[in-house]
Design a protein that fits this description.
The chain is an alpha+beta fold. The protein is built from ten helices and four strands. The radius of gyration is 18 Å and the shape is globular. This is Glutathione S-transferase N-terminal domain-containing protein.
C-alpha cells in the first residue's frame, strides 16, 4: 500500500496522475499546506523539506517501508517499481534530461511567476517581470521540442509527460492576463489536450475533492506558505 501525502497543487497532481494511470492501490493523506500541516513533526519525518508530495510505500525494496519525497523522485521510484511509463531503455537519457528540465526550470519558474503575480506585495515589478519572462522562456523550449511530437520523450507516454502536465495545467495562473494562455504555444496546446483527455486525468483531478482544504489566504496561510518572509522564532 502507498500512502500519498497530498495537497491540490501542481506537484502532487503529477503523482495522483501516475497512481491513477498505473492502477496502484493507495491511501490519500491530506496535508493542508495553507494551515501549515507540512511543518508538523510527523510530516517532517517523511519529508524534512516540508513540501508535498511525498509517499510512504509499505512494500518498498526488499519488503521494507520506503519514504520518497520530491515529485520527480517519486515519479522515478514508481516508474521503476511498476516498470511503467519510462519509455524504452534507449529513451532513458532523454527522459532524465526532460524530467529534470521540468524539475529545475519549468516548474520552479512557473511557481515563482505565480507567486509574484498573484501573492507578492505591489512594487516588485522587476521580480514579476523576471519570473514571468523566464516561465515563458521555458514554455518556448518545450514548444520547440514538441513540434511534430505527440509526447515529450520517445514515441509513448512517460513520466515526463505527467510531470509537464502538472504545471502546464496551471498555465492560466502562470500567464496571468491571457484569455487563452496557450495561444502562443500551439504545440504545447495540442500536446496538453492529448494528455488532458486521458481517463486517468479526470480521476487524478478528483483526488482530494472530498477533503475541505483551507481556502482563505490569511496571515496563518502566509506564515505557513512563506515562512522565510518572517523572523525565526
Amino acid at each position: 500500500m502507498i500512502r500519498f501525502y497530498f495537497h491540490p497543487t501542481p506537484n502532487p497532481a503529477k503523482i495522483a496522475l501516475f497512481l491513477e494511470e498505473a492502477g496502484l492501490a493507495y491511501e490519500t493523506v491530506p496535508v493542508d499546506t495553507m494551515k501549515g500541516e507540512q511543518h508538523e513533526p510527523a510530516f517532517r519525518a517523511i519529508n524534512p523539506n516540508g513540501k508535498v508530495p511525498a509517499i510512504v510505500d509499505t512494500e518498498g525494496p526488499g519488503g521494507s517501508e520506503a519514504r520518497i519525497f520530491d515529485s520527480s523522485a517519486i515519479l522515478l521510484y514508481l516508474g521503476d517499481k511498476t516498470g511503467q511509463f519510462l519509455g524504452t531503455p534507449a529513451d532513458r537519457p532523454e527522459l532524465l534530461s526532460w524530467l529534470f528540465f521540468i524539475a529545475s526550470g519549468l516548474g520552479p519558474f512557473s511557481g515563482q511567476a505565480v507567486h509574484f503575480q498573484w501573492a507578492a506585495p505591489e512594487g516588485l515589478d522587476y521580480a514579476r517581470n523576471r519570473y514571468r519572462r523566464e516561465a515563458e522562456r521555458h514554455y518556448e523550449v518545450l514548444e520547440g521540442h514538441l513540434a511534430g511530437r505527440d509526447f515529450v520523450v520517445g514515441n509513448g507516454y512517460t513520466i515526463a509527460d505527467m510531470s509537464a502536465w502538472g504545471w502546464i495545467d496551471r498555465a492560466a495562473r502562470v500567464m496571468k492576463g491571457e484569455a487563452d494562455p496557450l495561444s502562443a504555444f500551439p504545440n504545447i496546446k495540442r500536446w496538453f489536450h492529448g494528455i488532458d483527455t486521458r481517463p486517468a486525468v479526470a480521476r487524478a483531478r478528483a483526488v482530494g475533492k472530498d477533503h475541505a482544504f483551507k481556502k482563505d489566504a490569511d496571515e496563518q496561510t502566509r506564515r505557513a506558505m512563506f515562512p522565510s518572509n518572517y523572523p525565526r522564532a
